[in-house]
Write a structure and sequence with these properties.
Elements lengths: L1 E4 L5 H13 L3 E7 L2 E7 L7 H5 L4 E5 L19 E3 L2 E3 L5 E5 L6 H13 L4 E3 L17 H14 L2 E5 L6 H7 L2 E4 L7 H8 L5 E4 L6 H13 L5 E5 L18 H8 L4 E3 L1 H5 L5 H11 L3 E5 L17 H17 L19
Helix pairs in contact: 3-4, 6-7, 10-11
The structure holds phosphoenolpyruvate and manganese (II) ion.
Length: 352
């Protein structure tokens, strides 16, 4: 349930309410919203009498949260969550473009892409150093060397970094190099990993699993948030459907308005993995912006035919510049800015 506390309530009174809830078996989270203290009390499987809670001194209003996800729900937090990544606001008015290669393959590749996508208006550099591959014989990523390359290229171009964490054992090193920790589609229900990410103060980009329902996906976000880390960005990347060999997955555009209604978290769209075919990335990116996403995550490679991973869906550098130009016009039409082309002065990311 959501409990709104009276204005000016002192900490002893808050403590008393929290204690009452805890002794009745609830888990309690506190959040300040619009200058008012609110509590999110989770009473899974318990019958708590709301009137009894209403009668506690200092309680102003009480409402049930009608979903299994609580902290992630808009019912608990009506205002959009805006996540600051070294001066880049994700979930605010600006649509943030994130772009880069599927996998970090070498210095020249990443620096070339970083400069080009930054010049086209991307603010976040993507690139996998630990790659979840279907085949154990496929390129598995450069590991820590890849993270170093990614960080250096992002710093040089004044960008933030997003990269995938596959396992808890990688967390410590990832925190040294990465501004946004990506959880891949295959790990969306790796609850041990989600719990570990709940313990850190670093934004997480949480992909939707290829067969996740919206509820399962938002419950994965809830795992991270219930640990204390409220900086979750959800990312739709296509689900398994009936595209056959024509599309890799099917982009679920309805995820945008549905997540916006159910949750206050920012939502990013990854049309690259959704469709898996280069020439179909642009129309889906346009549609995603029109439908109200907060950001795009796009794979770009200087020579896609030589890419060690996901070449067929990777845009060429010129394609990305064209995409940026087109989505910028759509964003303008719906009243949302996108960073202009050309490196902008300003913050270089938390580690920059
Ligand atoms: C990726 O972004 O490189 C990736 C592996 O994505 P997903 O987890 O969505 O397949
Ligand atoms: Mn990829």
């Amino acid at each position: 349930m959501k409990i709104i506390l009276r204005d000016g309530i002192d900490s002893a009174a808050i403590h008393h309410i929290e204690q009452w809830l805890v002794t009745h078996g609830c888990v309690v989270h506190r959040l300040e919203q619009d200058g008012r203290q609110t509590l999110c009390s989770i009473a899974e499987g318990l019958e708590i009498d709301l009137d009894q809670v209403r009668a506690l001194p200092g309680v102003d209003a009480v409402a049930r949260i009608p979903h299994s996800f609580k902290l992630a729900s808009r019912a608990f937090r009506p205002a959009d969550t805006v996540i600051d990544v070294g001066g880049i606001a994700i979930g605010g008015p600006e649509i943030v473009m994130m772009a880069g290669p599927c996998a970090v393959e070498g210095e020249e590749q990443v620096r070339t892409v970083a400069r080009a996508v930054r010049a086209a208006g991307a603010r976040v550099l993507r690139g996998g150093a630990f790659k979840p591959r279907t085949s154990p014989y496929a390129f598995q990523g450069l590991g820590v060397t890849g993270l170093r390359i990614l960080r250096a290229a992002a710093d040089e171009s004044g960008m933030a970094v997003v990269s995938e964490i596959m396992d808890v054992s990688q967390l410590e090193v990832m925190l040294d190099y990465v501004d946004i920790l990506q959880v891949g589609a295959r790990n969306v229900q790796n609850f041990t990993l989600l719990q570990a990410l709940g313990q850190v103060d670093r934004p997480v980009l949480l992909k939707r699993g290829m067969s996740s329902t919206m509820d399962e996906w938002l419950m994965a976000a809830e795992y991270i948030m219930s640990g204390g880390n409220r900086k979750v960005i959800v990312c739709e990347r296509g689900i398994r459907a009936f595209g056959g060999s024509y599309t890799r997955n099917t982009l679920d555009l309805s995820a945008i308005p549905v997540v916006k209604q159910l949750s206050h978290l920012p939502i990013v769209i990854d049309p690259s993995h959704a469709v898996g075919v280069r020439d179909k990335v642009l129309p889906l990116a346009r549609a995603a912006v029109a439908a109200g996403c907060d950001g795009l995550l796009i794979e770009v490679h200087p020579r896609p035919e030589e890419a060690l991973c996901d070449g067929p869906q990777s845009l060429r550098i010129d394609d990305f510049a064209a995409l940026a130009e087109q989505v910028r016009r759509i964003a303008e039409a719906i009243g949302r800015p996108i960073a202009p082309p050309g490196p902008a002065p300003g913050p270089r990311g938390p580690r920059g």
